[in-house]
Amino acid sequence: MTTNQEFISLKAGEELRVEVGFDQKFWVKLNTGFAECFGAELGKREEYGGEFISKYVASTTPMYMCMNIHLALQSQRISAKELSDKDMLQASPRLLVLGPKDSGKTTLGMVTVPGTISATQFTHSLNPIDGFMSHGIVNDSGGVDHPLVFHYGHLETSDHPFLFRRLVKRLAATVEAQIKLNPSKSMAGIIIDTSGEMPSDYQVEIEDIVELFNVNRILVIENEKFYNTFVKRYEDNQNISIAFMQKSGGVVSRDSKFLHSYRDSTIKKYFHGTDSEKLQSFSTTLKIQDIGLFKFGQESLAPSSTLPLGESRKVTETQVSRVAIDDKILNMMISVLQLDLPEATKSMVDSNEHAEMDEKEQVEVDFNISEDSVLDAPVLGFINVASIDPNKNYVTVLSPSPGRVPSKVMLLSDIQWIETEG
């Protein structure tokens, strides 16, 4: 703990706002009274740590609005609980949170490894410090809540919009199927976080999400134009209510350097854990010929207008292509898919013939995979390429768990992460 201690007295309704950085630490302890951090009550005499650039006390807070939203959702849940299972599915809250970048949306959403589209069931209170990156949290039935993740592999939704919509459709179908299997749990509802990027087809993208997830509540943060747009769009739909919320004065704009550091920090937490719960990562060696590494589309797609007259694009955003394992994938993030036989079949060779082969001449495993099976396959976890030895035909990866990688079918992302000390 820092030796420069400062005592700050907050009145009811005031906030201590701290701008987070990546090169400093701060610790705060609640001495007397009652206080909360993002809705979680802080314990007296407990120390809470983090990193900061600046801090100040604000006399206004958006938490009253957040509390009203929480109470409205809770009231809707209570009403849904009294209905039949079929009616409960439609009556439970399904909240879509919209807003530009750096408006505070993700406080109501979730954080995962960059380059994915995911859903997580929460049946517990989150650690106010580690938040959505808390690991190994046990739910009220004694099990562990695992996220459902699909590989997207890019940072912005506008990079590959058709692929993004295809994956959102798959995610929505899976979520709906799970809700129907467990209608008693569906009354909790759904909270959907969205990208802060607003491309030209943003409204179409949002309308797709509203339809796919049967959204009945929309919360727009800061952007009055989009609030009015969606009020007009759904004015005849009595099942959808729309609310507007001002951005908190404590939300700051983040530059590209900060976002890059934050992204790296998120990936690091995946492998090494958080301040309150450290994790051990493991170095695993894989045979290159045993790995089926794929990617969606090509590294770059020329605009359709540049193609010769009468020709159509032969490579689409969702086309699956094999990737060579060489130095180009060094330090890249790779998704390990929940995909095995019969979706991915391996060619068999005679064991005697296999034993006589030189290690460099091992037969390459043939993965016969359909595009739909790859698109529909959830992600088991992530690995990071640490080194490649083409002479010995091995690749070394950083893995969050020991032992063999559970699947040899993998997808390459555009996201690079270099492990650093500290």
Main traits of this protein?
422 residues, alpha+beta, Rossmann fold, Elongation Factor Tu (Ef-tu), domain 3, four-stranded parallel sheet, 8 helices, globular, polynucleotide 5'-hydroxyl-kinase activity
Describe the overall structure.
With 422 residues, this protein is an alpha+beta fold. The protein folds into three domains: 15-60, no CATH class; 63-245, Rossmann fold (3-Layer(aba) Sandwich), CATH 3.40.50.300; 280-301 and 316-416, Pre-mRNA cleavage complex subunit Clp1, C-terminal domain (Elongation Factor Tu (Ef-tu), domain 3), CATH 2.40.30. It is 23% helix and 22% strand. It has eight helices and 19 strands. It has helices spanning 63-81, 85-91, 161-181, 202-212, 224-233, 256-272, 351-356, 371-376, and strands at residues 15-19, 26-29, 36-37, 40-41, 47-50, 54-58, 94-98, 116-119, 148-151, 190-192, 217-221, 241-245, 282-287, 292-296, 320-322, 332-337, 379-389, 394-399, 409-416. The strands form six sheets. Strands 13-18-17-16-19-14-15 form a seven-stranded mixed sheet, with no helix packed on it. It has a four-stranded parallel sheet with strand order 10-7-11-12, covered by helices on one side. A two-stranded antiparallel sheet has the order 1-6. A hairpin with a 2-residue loop joins strand 3 (36-37) and strand 4. The longest helix has 21 residues, at 161-181. The protein is globular, with a radius of gyration of 24 Å. The protein starts with 14 loop residues before the first strand and ends in a 6-residue tail after the last strand. 21% of the residues are buried. InterPro entries: Clp1/Grc3, Clp1_C, Clp1_C_sf, Clp1_N, Clp1_N_sf, CLP1_P, P-loop_NTPase. This is Polynucleotide 5'-hydroxyl-kinase GRC3. One of its GO terms (cellular component) is nucleus.
